[in-house]
């Protein structure tokens, strides 16, 4: 078979076939009466083998070794190809993500593109200072897609940079809440924590709804952070979690402050006082937890609280009794 016929049947150009021959990959021994190359059936099979191996990413040198070296073992080469392919995919994915971010920012010209690229690089810098400055400038100076800010906030470990990113997200609109919600379901505890902390600083109804749902999150850290934020927003459903925090001694001062904020609503004050008293008088809890619950009553107004404190001033636990007596004196002095 002549080279033109082989090219048509194999899909390999005549020029490439000549290149294979120059490298010694294919060696057609046959010749026509006119002296042209004549490819045998074995030659054509070898061409198909060459193309098959090339489709896996092998170089022509590696193809030659695979076909001609009886001792050639593919395992290591295949492993290397897998690694190289993964690296290439990762690089291409990173590039695609960067391009999408730039496109989402809707740059008006190349100057805008360059500014966005510079900001993206700054957000990925090893310098915490550069990341912080980039986060602060992302709101007013250079518009950055909210996806970029969310990704940065969920991965940031420096507290100052994280605070700047949360500040930027709080000013980025409703879309930030929906994207951060995905972080609440992350398998990584730190990511879940960063997500709820970021949501807690977004002052809109979508964020409040997410925080409300987070009260039933399997992660106790998420539940506690959500309860503190909801307490400041006047959401009564946070009360049980806040009281649990006081009992457990976890951010108990912040939890007591949140209960105090909720108790500014007269309709909630008696409910909160009743719940605190129930925990004090029912069930078995440590003495230190009872003292914290008594202290939490200090900023809860209403007759229910006053009666509870009067009863607690005679409590068997001297520390609780003294705490209640002191709080009563302060309330009577007002």
TrEMBL record:
Keywords: DNA-binding. Residues 1-69 form the HTH merR-type domain. Pfam families: HEAT_2, MerR_1. PROSITE patterns: HTH_MERR_1, HTH_MERR_2. This is MerR family transcriptional regulator. It comes from Actinoallomurus liliacearum.
